[in-house]
Amino acid sequence: MNLRFLTPQSLKSRVTLATLGVFMLSTVLLGSYASRLLREDLARELGAQQFATVSLLAGQVDEGLVLRQVALEIVAKEMSPALLVGDNPGVHKRLLEKFLLNAEQQVTEITAAAAAGDSATLGGVAHTLKSAARSVGALRLGELCQRLETAARVGNLQACKNLTGSLSRTFSHTRELIQVAMNTIAAHAYSTDASSLNNA
């Protein structure tokens, strides 16, 4: 067989080898590029699927928490202080006194947060005051705090400022009613003690 055309000195062999080398290099590069594209596509698909799965699970968890919160708030509305702490006038009086002390500070914090445009702090304090107000039967104050919390959650600072303007008046009215209730409790406790002494 005549192999002279494959000798390095042959121009034809040089062209053939060069073409073969370019072809092989192109094949390797093309395979590498295709492999990289395939990996990127798989990573994107897997990432999208994982994100969709996590989003679905997060949505289900969030929905469950919202439903639980609503259920707890409904139960809280139906609870009276007597159910929570028993039928002890002294305990009721201390509960109301503690509520007034904490609520006054919380009203101050809500007012300051509204002035500073701090919706996160405002919403958190309003939520705490809402629960406490409902637990002692101050439903009007609790409803106002619910509206404040909702406005803060969506970032409606103007609504927060408007509602905060009513907060001090509502709390003052609530405090007056609670003072009357505490006086009634004290009078009832005194009457009960006096009756016990007379019957002794």
Quick one: biggest sheet? none
Please report the number of helical segments: 6
Describe the oligomeric state of these chains in a short phrase. single chain
Rg (C-alpha, Å): 38 Å
How would you explain this protein's 3D organization?
With about 200 residues, this protein is mainly α. The protein folds into two domains: about 20-80; about 85-195, Four Helix Bundle (Hemerythrin (Met), subunit A) (Up-down Bundle), CATH 1.20.120. Helices cover about 90% and strands about 0% of the residues. The protein is built from six helices and no strands. The protein has helices at about 10-80, 80-85, 90-115, 120-135, 140-155, 155-200. Helix 3 (about 90-115) runs antiparallel to helix 4 (about 120-135) and helix 4 (about 120-135) runs antiparallel to helix 5. The termini are far apart. The model has no long low-confidence stretch (mean pLDDT about 75).
Q: Helices, strands, pairings?
A:
Elements: H1 11-78, H2 81-85, H3 89-116, H4 119-135, H5 139-153, H6 157-199
Features:
single chain; about 200 residues; Four Helix Bundle (Hemerythrin (Met), subunit A); about 90% helix; rod-shaped
Question: What does this entry show, briefly?
Answer:
By secondary structure, the protein is mainly alpha-helical. Helices cover 88% and strands 0% of the residues.
